Amino acid sequence: MPRLRLALAQTNPVVGAFEHNAAGIITATRSAAEQGADLVAFGEMAISGYPIEDLASRPSFLRAAREAVETLARRLADQGLGDVAVVVGHPDGPFEPRSVDVTTAPSAIAQNCASVLQHGRVIATTAKYHLPNYSVFDEYRVFIPGDDLLVARIADVDVAIIICEDLWREGGPVARVLAADAGLLLVVNASPWIADKDEVRLPLVTRRATESDTIVAYVNIVGGQDDLVFDGDSLVVDEAGTVLARAPQFREHLLLVDLDPAPATDPVVTEDVHRVLLDTPDTTPGSIALDGQRPALPRDVAEPRDDLEEIWNALVLGTRDYVEKNGFRSVVLGLSGGIDSAVCAAIAVDALGPDRVYGVSMPSQWSSEHSRSDADDVAERLGLHYRTEAIADLVRPFEDQLHLTGLAAENIQARARALVLMGLSNLDGHLVLTTGNKTELSVGYSTIYGDSVGGFAPIKDVPKTLVWELATWRNRFAAGRGETEPIPENSITKPPSAELRPDQKDEDSLPPYEVLDSILDGYITRALGAADIVAEGHDPDTVAEVTRLVDRSEWKRRQGAIGPKISGMAFGRDRRLPITYRPQQYR
Amino acid sequence: MPRLRLALAQTNPVVGAFEHNAAGIITATRSAAEQGADLVAFGEMAISGYPIEDLASRPSFLRAAREAVETLARRLADQGLGDVAVVVGHPDGPFEPRSVDVTTAPSAIAQNCASVLQHGRVIATTAKYHLPNYSVFDEYRVFIPGDDLLVARIADVDVAIIICEDLWREGGPVARVLAADAGLLLVVNASPWIADKDEVRLPLVTRRATESDTIVAYVNIVGGQDDLVFDGDSLVVDEAGTVLARAPQFREHLLLVDLDPAPATDPVVTEDVHRVLLDTPDTTPGSIALDGQRPALPRDVAEPRDDLEEIWNALVLGTRDYVEKNGFRSVVLGLSGGIDSAVCAAIAVDALGPDRVYGVSMPSQWSSEHSRSDADDVAERLGLHYRTEAIADLVRPFEDQLHLTGLAAENIQARARALVLMGLSNLDGHLVLTTGNKTELSVGYSTIYGDSVGGFAPIKDVPKTLVWELATWRNRFAAGRGETEPIPENSITKPPSAELRPDQKDEDSLPPYEVLDSILDGYITRALGAADIVAEGHDPDTVAEVTRLVDRSEWKRRQGAIGPKISGMAFGRDRRLPITYRPQQYR
After folding, report:
1. What percent of chain B is modeled with pLDDT above 90?
2. A398 CB-near residues (< 8 Å, 6+ apart)
3. Collapsed DSSP state (helix, strand, coil) of residue A274
4. Closest by CA position to A571, among listed B325, B54, B403, B223
């Protein structure tokens, strides 16, 4: 008979919403207890949301976090859930306002913690040791590293508890887990999703399980938080590398699994291991059979998704959570008939339903007939609210009064459209979605304060070539379910154009998108220099021009909307480069 | 007779402009050599500019930096300057493109170095040990810490060379300097200016000098780089705490000083000290007298400036360098007749001269008579290019077509003005300056894609109350020199108004600015919670409302222009907070 029933609760916290997050934790704990769980684990910072960034330096925030954890422990007990052991992530640090001397170096005051709660009390707390400070992470900036390993004994199992990055790095906690001879390694995570992450996460968890001969339980949060999307994908792998349980991605889930780890032995006492003894719940409400045996759990192992399906779901969840968590009722976006706005509209409808999505066609004198009909078509396919606002009468007074020509005249059209969308947003409270893709953002092929206007950019980390792939995938997915294909075929196949002057085509100004995306992958994602990219077979003049465009567009990107990170190198806090920058003999 | 003639060269590097920066280094070295210097020291990253941010992770950048340092050494020798010892800061790291695995943790590859050059060669290199990773600094993200102290012997003086943060922290290099028994501690800096920084920098340098009984020479770069302003203020303090030399702030300068430090002794050999022996130039071109004696140097000790004068100069330098280093010929800004735009115009004229500044008055139906006449007045006082573009005919078509009312109608006016400025920018290549102050940015009292539009925001870190003080100071400064006061008295004294509806005043929507700035200082600069601010004597409802406004404006700030940081907590990379954030029981 398995000795330990473990629940991994994949919740979707909101940063700063302690009460909301705690309520979700209580609900999940009740459900787990009803199903006979001994131990329920939540993700990293599940009570505060993640990442909290510089809120970690705000004593009033830390005070609220501490109160939230203590209140949670008491409430669980008050509601008859005090017997179940609960592991939950939270920030911790000093509460008193500091007198800040702004002229000297501030130091981190907080720690990134996980606590074990039982019987209304906080039994023990541990802090993260390895603080990621690369990519989007600034943890070394705001946290002090922990210095011990927490091992909690429950149901005669020694459960070692570590936090996220501590699983990924050799040394520190992972080495101590080996020495501590734990039966179960519980890892509490807030690990943002990027494409292909599941291809490294499962192998890592498996390797740690087999090399330490310990069952590894990995619990992750889920949901969108600004530019990050957490996919969940909580999982349990046994000492032989077998996946015992795996939660679905991109949704909340309570994953239950019965485990029979190696029984606890008398520990070698070491200074850097903090051991606590928990009570094992001997009765739990709900479904315990009369003989004290728990009915067996159904197997719960989610199948991995197709790569494009994962990306689509990440974009949908990132968009939905930005809208919901910031309290918007609806979104508005321009529909040009092109592929980018069609894909963004489809994402928005998948995220919010058609009744919360407002599309606006804003034709100009240069708009082709197909751009209007394709915009009408996507609106009809998606069933969203739709209106047309021609911009000719809005643009003409600017052209006439300022004698605009050339680029200035092209940009005024994009900017008049922005004013229409912002006007509708101000009237009706819509969030404006901006539909630029990563390729455009990379080379600055957009009008700042024009098509870049908006609070959220669903495809800002999606290169143009991938936009097409996603459109095709989404249509195929619909067709497979007998549903209307959301993206007009014509939007996918026609040559892209900004339509800001007669017969304009993107490829008049830019290399073919396949070439462009390949160069950008080298320059941006792989941080290659121009010479290195040329050595991979690209034309030197094209590489010089593309890298020049990327460098000179940094000021525009800085003023751009956030959007879901899906790649290993997204614009925003993932890639921090100067605006003022005069490269010479290299790029 | 002093044994060592030291030159501290306070140069203004441009990030990435290796050739330009090296040319400035050669010019300064020649001038120092002509004046008989033995040793010429430049600032941290003087050859690459600072901060280089994630360029430090780009092997092609590191390759260019290495080539630039080696080329510099050779060129100095080729030009007859090989005898002089030169200390220069630069990044260093591996050159080969890496295959980046985007799914795992990238690690820093570079170091923040200073090298000693002589006789055409790089004699020795040391790397920074303490890597600042707070405030605007991300050095732990991109650099590997150094692990030894470099001591170069020249003219029978042991010169210990450390980099910036290593002076500020106890332990590490500072402790090793004490043990190494150096005669001179040379600190190579890129230390951004903030208000009151000189009040901590000089005491720190003095304390290090007296506590280690070592002369301390502190050399800093100067100039604007994006949102940072480096003020120079290079200085030399002797063992008794006397300031021997001090360079003026906010301009390039070559500071020469004769020193007679304790002679070098036979060192105790320790593993963590790297010692090199340099040749002492026995002849230098130029002004050496026939008997081999160098003529005495004039005393060069700049007087500190008044606080407001320092701030004004920082804003002017930050604005000028953003314009110059990014290759703009001119700037354009809206002149409303209000204090913010008048101060920005005065800064721009001080930075660039009136012929490179274009002001535009854009009255609406709600603009008061005084707003037009005050705008005319500031334009005339400053002598800048000036035109009027009424917006009524631009706004009306939007109002009519979209039936705009209320906030939507107010915002369309600000956004029509933005389109005018961007149109003029597109026609004539002007950089658009946006004139919002820190108080407005804090509470979101501005129209996004309206008055927030622009590439640079000269007063974005200046609270409204300080804007008034600066205006008054600048007028007093002008009056003291018998010049025209640049800011109309009426712009300073009239009640602030956005003039987007009839008889609108800022204080209809906001608390009085003295109260508001005090609350914002608590919430933003000192990171207090609402309860802490109330405890300081503020009205609870006002505090609740102000902190709510600050939190909900984060998305606007993220899309704002950069501008010079003058405070200990500026918006931008200095203050990293989530947009999606739902504070509840605290703030």
Report:
1. 84
2. A404, A412, A416, B394, B419, B420, B423
3. strand
4. B54
In the DSSP assignment, the letter for residue B322 is H
The span from the CA of A166 to the CA of A205, in Å, is: 12
pLDDT tens for A123-139 read 999 999 999 999 999 99
Of the two residues A172 and A327, the one the predictor is more confident about is: A327
Q: In whole angstroms, what is the distance from residue A186 CA to residue B459 CA?
A: 50
Question: A426, B408: Cβ pair inside 8 Å?
Answer: yes
Single-letter amino acid code for the residue at A523: Y
**Contacts B140 to A, Cβ<8 Å:** 133, 140-141
B394:A393 CB<8 A:
no
Mean pLDDT value of segment B393-415: 96
Give me the mean pLDDT over the B252-268 stretch: 90
Residues 6+ positions from B42 with CB-CB distance below 8 Å: B9, B11, B25, B28, B86, B87, B88, B89, B188, B219, B221
In sign, the C-alpha dihedral spanning B52, B56, B58, B59 is: positive
The answer to whether A41 touches A188, Cβ cutoff 8 Å, is: yes
Task: Please say whether the beta carbons of A291 and A245 come within 8 A.
Answer: no
For residue A568, the distance in angstroms to the closest alpha carbon of chain B comes to: 5
Position B65 pLDDT exceeds 60? yes
* Closest Cα in chain B, distance from residue A58 (Å): 5
- Cα–Cα distances (Å) from B188 to B6, B27, B86, in that order, read 13, 19, 12
pLDDT of residue B506: 87
Strand B273-277 with B235-237, pairing: unpaired
Distance separating alpha carbons of residues B222 and B9, to the nearest angstrom: 10
Q: Is the pLDDT confidence value at B100 over 70?
A: no
Residue A6 tokens, joined: 């473990």
Cα–Cα distance measured from residue A397 to residue A382, given in angstroms and rounded to the nearest whole number: 35
Identify the band that residue B285 occupies on the pLDDT scale cut at 50, 70 and 90.
very low
Distances (CA, A) of A447 to A142, A418, B273, B420: 36, 10, 55, 14
What ipTM score was computed for the predicted complex, to two decimals?
0.95
CB of B337 less than 8 A from some CB of A:
no
The reply to whether A65 touches chain B by the CB within 8 Å rule is no
Q: Do A578 and B55 touch (CB under 8 A)?
A: yes
Question: B517: helix, coil or strand?
Answer: helix
* Residues of B that are catalytic: 44, 128, 164
Average pLDDT for residues B192-218, to the nearest whole number?
93
| pLDDT at residue A226, as a whole number | 98
Q: What percent of chain A has pLDDT over 70?
A: 96
